[in-house]
Amino acid sequence: MTRLPRSTYRLQLSAEFTLHDAAALADYLRDLGADWFYLSPILQAVAGSSHGYDVVDHTRVDASRGGEDGLRALSSAARTHDLGVLVDIVPNHMGVGVPEENAAWRSVLDLGRASPFADWFDIDWEYGQDRVLLPPDLNYRRFFAVNELAGIRVELPEVFAATHALIASWVRDGLVDGLRVDHPDGLADPGGYLADLAAATGDAYVLVEKILERGETLPPFWAAAGTTGYDALAELDRVFVDPAGRATLDALDLGLRRGTPPRWADLIHQTKRAIADGILQPEVRRLVRDAGLPGTEDAMAEVLACFPVYRSYLPLGAEHLAEALATAAARRPDLRDDLDRLAPVLGDREHPAAIRFQQTSGMVMAKGVEDTAFYRISRLASLTEVGADPDEFALTVEQFHARQQTRLAAFPASMTTLSTHDTKRGEDTRARISVLAEVPEEWTGFVQRRRQKHALDDGALENVLWESIVGSWPREREALHSYAEKAAREAGGATTWQDPDEDFEQRLHALVDAAFDEEDTAEDVAAMVARIERAGWSNGLGAKLLQLTGPGVPDVYQGSELWDFSLVDPDNRRPVDFGLRRLLLAALDGGAEPTVDATGAAKLLVTSRALRLRRDRPELFERYAPLPAVGEASDHLIAVDRGGVVVLATRLPLGLEARGGWGDTSLLLSAGPFRDALTGAETAGGETAVAELLSALPVALLVQDRS
User: Fold this and answer.
1) Are strands 146-151 and 93-95 parallel, antiparallel or unpaired?
2) Inter-residue contact 7 to 149 (CB < 8 Å)
3) Which of 149, 516, 519, 531 could form a disulfide with 93 if both were Cys (CB 3.0 to 4.6 A apart)?
């Protein structure tokens, strides 16, 4: 029977933090309450790789990360402490930036099509006249636009066998319990691949890094327990956003743009089309060659730009292709003839062009939306997260509950998360930024004052920068400089990675320095942070508790058991002070009663108590029943019975404070008694005042005594 995790704890391995270092944390993870280790890729990667997604050899564990001995040491420590092990794998591509380290790629470069590894890589041999072409005229599939990552063809049995033999042995030999599949959307046949993986691993627990658009669901026939949780992240964020702030924040965005802001659909069409015409142009040209329809590059790029989700899995998703073709024809009537020629080709699931189109559409979406458009929309930066739709501003409590009930019914073992190595902002940065929807007029005033001193002639970008600075404050100067430069270049407005504008970037860095060096700016930043900080802590605790106790398998990203005010990578991959976390956890277990403050001890309390309860008493988490609250402040409460444990979280805390607190609001509980696992407070059950339940913390975890 497949072993399922009750929770996971993600660790980023590197030469500086190896498998041996991770093994030494087994006792801490057990004490914290986590159920499984969750490891970044461990196969041999390019020398010096900080992430491990650039695998060069599938036959050995990365030496710099601890090697085979390190994996065995970690697995042994995990078993000693009754922990499982989940490992990230990368079937879509290999690292080829240093050919001498990748024997297969070196052979292909040297021998061309005569190489015994010629079929491993997704190369257009005819176009390259039996050789690999390098920039600027590529003839091999890449991971997104990264020339140093070349796509491999795991759909071929011999390639799958060669690249997965060691992985399968980990599971077979009991070293590893489950696998996380990176970027399945790049594969020719994701469903077929997952079936092969299940056969090779004896149906091990498998998750897929699949980005679902709003309303989209994971293909139900895939041999996967679910996704890595970005869809859950978006829901958890939005239930803490005040919908009343939308109009004012929209007006601010309008003023910053000096004109009508583009609709989200129009903005992402623009950015996706720029990607298709720019850094992914070689992929578009290859699609046209595969289709056998020369001269249709413009139409092909337009269909990619209009595709509404990451990809289809024909015949599943044929409606998305039909929508893209129709939208393309409406936007570009001049392309109707070419679109009509492309339609039957792209709709034929056996046609090479249709298979490749499905592999390519996700690349265009990721680069055009996550890595470009997300930096151009400024209304509320917490909404621009991987897997999220910024057009969806907020969720009502009822909408949130409905989505959790769907998750429990459809994919109960799917992962949920709040932070990852790929999120644009850490969970508590977003939690604080979301508070701005409660004080939109005050935020508008702040931005206008700062623009008077440091305007960049890109108001939307300025808003994103100030939201990120205030959301993560206090931060190191260099971290904010790095973030500002990356955000500006990703947005691709006044400056880009390919063509940096030195004058613009000097003004950009001056804006960051002003937060530290200019008295009035520093005071303004400090005052704004003070205004929203406590409310951000409340949001952060609420989101954490709902995630850890909600449907699915909750993951805790490394270090996020304390406040996580990180920004985009590499900031979110910094070393974690586990010594501090051990000390704080020991103090809590010794009876310390934390207040909600900058130490984050209250978050560690919430995390550890929720994880332990989830691990030790899984029978308390078998249903999802929203609980009714009545009274003047009932809209500020999220309450759910998970089957024996009642979870409470405060939402819109500034509004609650402005109305004078909970007042006569009460919660209708079943017969008790209940004990709060966070504070130890007891209540009899029945109709209970919310002010009593949340007197110490903005959240509660009530365990029913059924004895």
Assistant:
1) antiparallel
2) no
3) 149
